[in-house]
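Dig into this one:

. . .
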Amino acid sequence: MTKQRHGIDGFIPRRADGARGSRDTHSLEEIEQASHPARPEVGIARKGLSPVKNDDLNASLREIELDDKSEDLGKKGKKRKKPQSKKRRIIKWSIIGVIAILLIVGGWLAYKLMNASDSVFEGNIFGLAKNQPLKEDKNGRSNILLLGTSEDDPGHGGAYLTDSMMIVSIHQKNKTIDMFSIPRDLYVQYGRACNSGYEGKINEFFNCVNDDWDTKNKSAEKERLTETRKFVGDIFDLDVQYAVHVNNTVIKEAVDAVGGVDVDIQGSNGDPGVYDRNFDWRCNYECYFVKYDNGVHHLDGEHALFLAMARGDVRPTYGLGNSNFDREKNQQKIIVSLKEKAVSTGTLTDITKITKLIDALGHNLRTNFDTSEIRTLMDVASETKSEDIKTISLFDGDSAVVTSGDYNGASVVMPSAGIFDYSQIRTFIAKKFTSDPVKREAANITVLNASGTEGVAAAEAEKLEAQGFTVSNVDNAEEGSYGDIEVYQVGKGMSATKQKLESIYGVTVKTDKPPVPVNGDTNFIVIFGKAPMTNE
């Protein structure tokens, strides 16, 4: 085997046949000449020496020269980055600064919310990322028991009594809210021994469950909320899924956090406004905490709190002639106004207001809502229009289902149907909260018997009531000529009731004048001229 010969500087000499190596088929010189036929031959110039003509060496040098030029062209051909202008640098760092601020603020709010959620809600902070639907009853409603105490008010007598009690009913699909206040003096049977015995005013029950008010003892608070919402639910025949416990401070701080609320204040019984000196001792009677003409007033937290507490029990006073019932109305107005302000754009975009609102809730509110349900609750609150928030009164008008009076030597509130008889109250609430449009319309129906067969009207009235109708009068019809079944409507509206009566009896409801006398509150008259066929 012939050894391979080496030339100077490590270059391999060309073989006799002109090839440089077994893998080369053409010399670099041939390739270069093919690419640049007119290119002059390049040699090596040294001081005092003539150019050396060596094909291998020249070819190698040309190769090095080409590489150097290519590198130089690459460096020169690459587009040089222009230095940023001062304006661009300012914009860049401004954006970075804004992002940093947002991250800091977001982290601060997350920290505040995490602390608040741990105290206020069940579950953990990660639940806030979810959007869990609220629990519902058979009518698609989520019912919340709102309880207010005054343990944060030094020297307040009966601080642990729930002097403020309210049911807030949310229909999360229809985006409607109904609410009614529970009279704090409603006389009830506790089913256990309490301070006043086995029966007394409903506002005592919450404190009767247990008396452990250590804010760190969450289990004691949970027990009170669970037992009280079940107790209230049984009285009103409602599935109360949630309970919220607040104190006086939460009202004051929450109202201040959103910048105050606007409340339409109206004196009761035709009075020109509302006046109550019960709280003016705080300023040595040199100011008025509750004194307003009829109309809309902007209230800060302190004045909203005292209006929510005012019931005209200390003279001089006016505009609160219905005592607790007037106070309950004002509480409802404050809550509605606070809701409107809390979900307004001005509040949601104000970091200071949001932080204060979180603090107010975190320090003074307890509930059994899970963190995973909060986003749903906030969505419903923000999407529900003011006109779709209805307040219901158990006391007002001809439909009052509670009344005040004396029982066992005490002034109390009791059902209009009689002490401990909640049937009328339950029916009234069921009509307001039902998803059945016929029950919601609660049209008054008079059923008359003209068949000559005894008991027809009474039997048919029971059938109608079983189907959700409200039968207000059952009697015999005056003598006359009637069809087998005739149905008349007095007035307009009540379309659901009209359609259902037509469907049941297979007749068209008449809108002309009925052939019998009509009571003032009657909406429909059903006359049986013939006894209906039975399935017996």
Summary: The longest helix spans residues 86-120. The chain is about 35% helix and 20% strand. Residues 8-74 form one domain.
